[in-house]
Structures are given as C-alpha cells and as structure tokens.
Design goal:
Layout (H helix, E strand, L loop, with lengths): L10 H21 L15 H13 L5 E3 L5 H8 L2 E2 L9 H11 L3 H13 L1 H10 L4 H9 L10 E6 L2 H12 L15 E3 L1 E5 L2 E4 L2 E4 L11 E8 L2 E7 L6 E8 L2 E8 L1 H5 L1 H7 L8 E7 L3 E6 L6
Parallel strand pairs: 1-2, 1-3, 8-10
Antiparallel strand pairs: 3-13, 4-11, 5-6, 6-7, 8-9, 10-11, 12-13
Helix pairs in contact: 4-5, 4-8
Length: 306
C-alpha cells in the first residue's frame, strides 16, 4: 500500500518507510473493535439505520455518490446501489487520512475541498503527487486547502450514529504526524448516563449537573451547555469558564437521548457541528435528510455560493 511518511528521501528509503507504515496502519486497525488483520468484516447495521438507507435509496438520485466513513461502504453500495468514496478495500490507503482529516477539521471549506478533490482526481491524484516526491505540507494543502470545482452534481455527505463512538479513531488517524510518524490523540465523546432533564438540572447516574452554575457532578467546569432537539440547537447556556468543556444534551421530540462532554477541538469539528448540532455552511452544503440521531445527509454543492 502507498502510505504517508516523509518524502524528502531517496526512492528506496521511501519504499521501505511506505511498507513499514502500511504494516503499522493494518496493525492499528487490527487493534480496533470493528476490524482485524487480513479481513474486512461483514457490516453489522442496526435495523433502524438500515431502514434509513432504504429510504435514501428511494429519495436520492440514482447516480449519487456517498461520502462517509468506510465501515458501511460496501453495505451502502449493496443496499443503495450507489457509489461510495470509502470502503473496507481502501481503508488502509492514504484516502483514509484525508477523509478523517476533513471530518475532524474545524473548517467547512476543508471538508468541501477534500470531497471535490477526491471526486475529480481521486487516489490517482494523491498517488501522482507522492510519486513526484511532493512534500507532505504541499500534498495536504493541495487536497484540503486548494478549492476544486466539484465535478459531480449528486455527491452527498452522510453521518451515521456509529461514528460517534468511532470519532476517537477517526480523529487519531486525521491527526497523523508526518514528522513523528505517529497517530494523533484519541479524543472524542464522553457519554454520561443521565435519565432526566429539568429546566436547569440534568440528573445522571453519578450525580446531578447544575445547569445554572455550569459545573459537572465531578467539579469539571463547563464552558457552555447546548440542548438540542431533533439535531438542532434549541437552547444554549454560556458560563464564565473560558477553559471549560462543552456539555451537549441531545433530545428528540423533547425526550432525553443522551448527554456528552467534549473538549473544544471535538466541539468545533465538522462532524460535531453538522451532525449533532445541525450547524453548517449553506454556501457549501444543503441538508437533504435528517433521521436524527440515526442518519443525517447533506448535499455537497458543486460550486460554493458567495
């Protein structure tokens, strides 16, 4: 497999490092809870999520392409009869880094640029830059920061519920360090076990969170509380804790679903903003399907509106 290391070396040295990193990446996925070395598991899709795929099959254009994390890639192709950008056969390719980077980035433009690049130039464009000994900074910039006209009118960005628990892995891959040749930190969602939400009180198994004061039951300072309903922010409470974390309380039709504590980086990510909070740049994306919290889909605009 072609993979990422420093390219400012002679070809034989680069080949050895490509091979070494390829092995490391396979080993990394082998340690995860949803794949193993040498095999791609048959996707296990919860029935409610599977039903959303059937709904989308009937509502999206037949020539659509789906941009999402790799786990459901084969299933989406089989169930929806649509193209995908990422599946179990390409999870150890450089494409995985860029998709992870775009989903965890704080910049919607980087997400749109990555989708546009992979649509028009695909892995061939990335491999060509690697073969030309392009520096890693220029390579990343070419994909994430250089606007490319989207060459397909029916490209859709999909988020699914399973990606919440997989966010730590996605973030770690997207923060791969070229200089240190290692994955980034595994940061993500801390899910609280809570069963009742009152106006200014969230009751959880380990204690009560006072939403007026902005402190968790374990004295963790909270910077802001966001209460959502059906995937849109319904109420926001800010506190004078500039270095605190975010408390996200998710509800559906007023019924408490879950509560999460996250740091600034997770909060600002494209994944969190678009999927869990319903905040997106309408110049770049249109929401076309919301079966929160199971599946959420956005149409990717061919050209940004300005």
């Amino acid at each position: 497999h072609r993979n990422f290391v420093s390219w400012n070396q002679d070809p034989s040295s680069r080949y050895k490092e490509f091979s070494a990193y390829g092995i490391a990446l396979v080993f990394f996925f082998g340690l995860s809870s949803y794949t193993a070395i040498g095999r791609v598991p048959k996707p296990s899709i919860p029935v409610p999520t599977f039903l959303t795929f059937l709904e989308l099959k009937d509502s999206l254009p037949k020539d659509s392409a789906i941009y999402t994390w790799w786990d459901y890639g084969y299933a989406l192709t089989e169930v929806m009869d649509m193209a995908t950008f990422h599946d179990g056969g390409s999870q150890t390719s450089p494409k995985t880094f860029f998709i992870a980077k775009s989903l965890t980035s704080h910049h919607p433009t980087e997400l749109h640029n990555t989708i546009s690049y992979l649509t028009s130039k695909g892995m061939e464009g990335i491999n060509r830059m690697i073969d030309e000994n392009t520096s890693h900074k220029e390579l990343v910039s070419s994909v994430l920061e250089s606007p490319t006209t989207l060459a397909h009118e029916s490209v859709y960005l999909m988020f699914t519920k399973d990606q919440i628990r997989k966010f730590r892995t996605i973030h770690s891959i997207g923060q791969w360090s070229f200089e240190k040749a290692q994955f980034g930190p595994r940061i993500g969602y801390k899910t609280l076990k809570c069963d009742q939400l009152k106006e200014f009180e969230l009751r959880c198994r380990k204690g009560v969170i006072d939403l007026k004061r902005g402190y968790s039951y374990d004295s963790t300072p909270i910077k802001s509380t966001l209460i959502t309903d059906n995937g849109y922010i319904k109420r926001r409470i800010r506190y004078p804790n500039n270095h605190g974390k975010y408390l996200q309380i998710l509800t559906k039709e007023g019924k408490l679903l879950t509560a999460q504590v996250i740091n600034e980086r997770v909060y600002q990510s494209n994944f969190n903003q678009m999927y869990l909070l319903g905040q997106y740049d309408p110049n770049l994306f249109d929401e076309v399907y919301n079966a929160f919290p199971l599946t959420r889909v956005f149409h990717v605009r061919t050209q940004p509106l300005r």
